[in-house]
Amino acid sequence: MTAVLEVTNLRKAFGGIVAVDGVSFEVRAGEILGIIGPNGSGKSTLFNCVLGQLQPSGGEVKVDGRVVTGFRPSDLNRLGVSRTFQLLQVFPKLSVRENLILAGQEHQGNMLTRLLGPSDAGLSKAADQMIDFFKLGHLADEPAGGLSYGQQKLLDAAMAFMGGPRLVLLDEPAGGVNLTMLGDLKARLAEINREKRATFVVIEHNMEFVMSLCSRVVVMAEGKVLAIGTPAEIRANTAVIDAYLGH
Amino acid sequence: MMRLGGIVVAIASAAAIAAPFFLKPYGIFLISTWAVLTIAAIGLNLTLGYAGQISLAQGAFVGIGAYTVALLVPAGVPFFAAFMAAGLLSFAIGWVLGYPALRVQHHYLAFVTLAFSTLVFLVLRNEEWLTNGIYGIAGTSRPTLLGWQTGAARDFYFLCLGVLALLSLATWWMLRSPWGRAFVALRENPVRALSLGLDTRRYTLMAFAIGSSLGGLSGALYAPLVQFIEPSSFALGLSFNLLLMVIVGGSGNFFGPFVGALIAVLLPEWLRVTQGYYLIVYAAAVMVMMAFCPAGVLGLIERAGGMLRPPRKAAGAFTDGAAT
Description:
Chain A is α/β, with parallel strands linked by helices. Helices cover 37% and strands 25% of the residues of chain A. Chain A is globular and about 55 Å long. In chain B, helix 2 crosses helix 8.
C-alpha cells in the first residue's frame, strides 16, 4: 500500500525545549492512524509542523511522495490535506451552511470566478448533503456560534471534508463530546473512510475511540515515538503501558 | 425581515433623491458631503468591519484621491479618467499598505497605518512643487457627463449620489460573493481560514486595496465638491472621523456607513443650537452611544428587533447530542 503521508525525522524546538524530537512514521492510503500520548508529548506540535502552521526545525514531510515541508496550510489544503484543531474553530457568525460553503469554496475555480460566480460557489447542495450526513439538518441556517459544543465539534469535522480531501488530520475530535454524539462521530468517520477511501490521522485521548476506529496507532512520549503498531500490539506493549496506558 | 429591509432601503433612497428639492444650498452641500464620505466609510467598513484589518489611514486615501483629481483635471485630463486614476492609485498604494498587515495585527497595525497617514500628510504639506503645500489647490471644476453639467450644487449632489449607488451595489455584490465570506473568515479566525485553503495573504491585501480605492474615489468627488483642498483636511482627524462613522453606524453591517456618515455629518450641524458647546455635546453623545451600544446604531435597531420577535428555542436544545 502506498504512503499518503511520510514524516521523516521531524524535529521542532522552541528555544531549548524540544517538543518534537526526530519523529518518523508513514500513513498508508485508506488507513486510519491514531496518535496517542500524554499531554505535552508533542502530538499537536507534530500536527502543526506537518500542516505548515509551524515551521519544523528539521526533518521532512511528504504527501503522495512530494516534499511539502514548510508549505503553507492553504497550499496543503489545496493539495487535499485537511485538518481540525484541538479547540473549536468554526466561524460563529456564519450559519452552519455558510461555514461548510466557506470550507469548500477555495476549491472552486479561481479568485475571479469566485467573485463573479454564484454567491454559494455552487456548493449549497454539497453543503446540505454534508449537513444531513452529520445530522445537523435542523441547524443549517443557525449561526454556528449558537450551537452546543458537541454540535460545533461535528460541524468542525464536517468542514474538514468539504474540499474532498485525500488526507484528514483530526486533533482530538472526541474532546468534550458526549457519548451519543461520540458514537455518531465515529460512525461518520468510519463511513467516510470506507466509502470515499479518505485517509485519517487522529490525535485522541479517548482510548476506546482510538482503539476501535484506528487500524494502527503511534504512541508518543516526550516528543518521541515510543511505539507503532496495531491497537492489539499497543495494548500489549509494556513500555506503552508503563508510560501512558497504565496497568 | 428581508421585505421590511427592502422597504426601508426604498424609503431611504426616495428621501435621498427628494432631499435636495427641499434644502437650501448649505443643506445640499451637507448631504453631498454625506454621500462622498459614505463612499470612504464603505471602504473602511470593508477593510475593518468585514475583514477585521484596522486602518487609521482612510482619510489619507481620501486625500490621495482628492489631490489626484485636483492635479490631473487642470492638466487637461478628463474628469472621469482622473476619477478612475484616483481609484487605481489608491488601490495600488492600499495594496502595498496591506503588506504590514500580513505581519502585524490590531494596535500594531493601527500604528503602521497611523504612520502612513502622517507620511501622506507630510508629503501633501511639504512637497510644494507638486501639491502647492499649505496654500492648497482651489477651483477643481465639476464635470460634465454626456452633456449634463454638474456645476450646480443639486446636479453635483445627484452625481455623488449616483456614484454612491453604483459603488454600493458593487460592494454589495462582492460581499455576497465567496469573497465576502472569505473576508469575514479573515476577521473571525484567520488560522482556521488558512487551513481551509483560503489564501489569507491575498484576501488581506485585497481588503486593504479595495477599501483604499473606495477612499480614493471618495476623495475624487471631494475635491470638486469643496472646490478647495489643503493638506490639513486629510490629516488624522478625517481618518478618525471615518472610523467613527463605521463604528457608530455598525461595523461589519453593510448599511452601517450610511447611517454613521449621516450622524457624523449632520449631528454636529443640528447641535449648533448649543452654540459653543456643540462639539462637547457631540463628543458626549458619541461616548454614551459607544458605552451602551458598541455594535452601533444598526446593532441597537437589530437588538430592538430581536426583542420584539417571539422567543424561540435555543439551537443547542434541538438534539440530544449536545455535550454539556
